[in-house]
Every structure is written in structure tokens, then in C-alpha cells.
Amino acid sequence: MELDEARRRRVLRQHVMTDQLLGVQAVPISAGVALQVDESAAVEGEGSLSTHGRGVVGNESAQAIDRTDGAPRPSVARAGGAGGAGDVGGARLEQIRLDHEAHCQTPLRDLQVPGAKIVFGEGSAEADLMFVGEGPGQTEAELGRPFVGRAGELLDKMIVAMGFSRETVYITNVVKFRPPKNRTPTPQEIAAEAPYLIDQILAVQPKVIVALGGAAAKYMLDTTRGITALRGNWHEYFPVPSGQAIPLMPTFHPAFLLRQYTTDNRKKVWSDLQEVMRKIGE
Ligand code: URA
Fold first, then answer.
1. DSSP code, position 166
2. For residue 231, what is the enclosing H or E element?
3. What is the model's pTM?
4. How far is the CA of 217 from the centre of ligand 1 (A)?
């Protein structure tokens, strides 16, 4: 089958980006053709799989937990913020964020260090693609934003290599309060925050969810199987039991990838992400 020019450029761009950013020399399988890498075409290529860019929402007023009086206190607002008038998804996400901040009963709330912020999530309220990680680390809790530390830098590269941008996807975690010393959240801690994650998913209604790492994948798929067994295959996630399934692709957490930065692991992650791109393009 002949690829049209725009698609050819996109494929070339992905090839070059993958090589440059992830260090994996893999041509997208979906291309179905032998490609000659033409960097100029790749660099100037139009680049994104789909047009997004609607309301970008985030931790508009990420809250710091002030342990001296136990009450949340407002902190610096992040640039970006909810989309304009009529941004129903963004308004709904903001409602959920405020509800979570005020009412979430997680045991993690009492374990926060002074100044730590709740990391609710950010991105487009109408994103086709949603990433769900484990929980905020130190940098995330300092800034009130998901995936902004070293693992976040790698996630950003993955997002760009996929032809998206941070503003066109939605990024969150199963827990929004930082677990002490970055430990894995317990099942009780995950369960306490789960209703808010479900509400976020119902608000955004992504076409595809990528679960980053074992904690997110195991919780969302209600399984004890490890990430190595789960990744690379499509699963169905049901935000509500009687509702519609959302395709979910588990993959290695970027922090794991940084620790085990082997060609094999990078290829696996890139192959998972290519599957995701293919699904979104269907
Ligand atoms: N790791 C996660 O799982 N989430 C973040 O937001 C940052 C690091």
C-alpha cells in the first residue's frame, strides 16, 4: 500500500525521533515499507498523529499541605490552567481536583512532609491519550505537577517521539499524595484515591490509557501479574463495571527504564508505544 506524503513524513520523523530520543533504531512496524531515512523530511514533517490542543488543565492551584496546622494552603498557580469558557471537561476536572483535595481520606495525607503539594494531574481535558503512573516523587510534590523529575523528562521524550506534546495528552497517577521515600503505595492507599482517578478517566474519556509500571497496571487491571507479563498486550479497563471498556496498554515505568537502560527494554517500551499510536490512529 502506498503511503501518502504526510504519513511518510510522519513515519520518517518517528524513526529519527526514536533513534535520537530513545536510542532505539526501530522503524515503526505500521509503516509497512522499507524506509530511507531522510532527516530533513523528518525534521520538517508535520509531526502529530492527531490534532488535539484543546483546553489544557492542571493543578491550577496545587495545594501545599501545611503540617503545622494540618490544613491545605494554596500555593503558586501553574501557568497553563483550565481552558476557556465552555471547557466542560476542564471544569469537571477542576471539580474533581477540589473534591479530592478537600475530601480524599487517604492515609497518605497524614504522611506528607511540610510544603508537599498534591499532584492531581495535568494536560488536555479532551486528550485521546492518558498516562497513569504510580505516584508523585519528590520533585513532583515540590512542584505539584506529575512526571517532572528525571522519569518525567524521559516520559516527555516518549510523548514527543509519539508525535504528541505534554499539552495534548493527560498525565496523572494512581495516588496523588507522595508516598514517603517514594515507596510503592499500598493497596489501601490506592483504594482511597481510586474514585478520583476513575472520575478523571470518566471526565477525559481517553481513547487509550497507558499504565506506567506495575503499580498502575496491577491496580487498573485488578491483577497480581507483574508488568513484564502484562506489557506489550492490550487489556480492557472498565472505569465503571457496566460502562464501556477503554483499551489499556501497560508498559515499563520510565524510572525503571532509567535504571535498566538496556536496548532490549527501550525497544520493548517503544514497541508498546507504537501499538498505542496505531490504536489511536484506528
Ligand atoms: N513517578 C510516577 O509514577 N509519577 C510521577 O508523577 C513521577 C514519578
1. T
2. none
3. 0.78
4. 14
